[in-house]
Amino acid sequence: MEALGMIETRGLVALIEASDAMVKAARVKLVGVKQIGGGLVTAMVRGDVAACKAATDAGAAAAQRIGELVSVHVIPRPHGDLEEVFPHQFQRRQQHLTHGRISRASAAIRH
């Protein structure tokens, strides 16, 4: 089962640092970044529960060094309805990556 890990910071630089630390610390995939407003930004990662926990711990430590950490949370088994409510975070990124690979592969074959 894939978990969902989230880190929210005040300021983009802290979030970029946290995101970098998360993907380096564990086998997780960065699946979305959302600007909330008022300087708040959130990054979301997917992976198994232990990986998301390790990643968010590393990301939280990195964010605190650089800026202001607001919140950290891991949902072990997110309900499927979350992906219906927040589809752009989980599905569109995946489709974009897939279409990008297909487009590049098609272009390479044609030439």
UniProtKB/TrEMBL annotation:
The keyword Transferase does not apply. Keywords: Bacterial microcompartment. Its main location: other. It comes from Klebsiella grimontii. One of its GO terms (cellular component) is bacterial microcompartment. This is Ethanolamine utilization polyhedral-body-like protein EutM. It is found in: Bacterial microcompartment. The keyword tRNA processing does not apply.
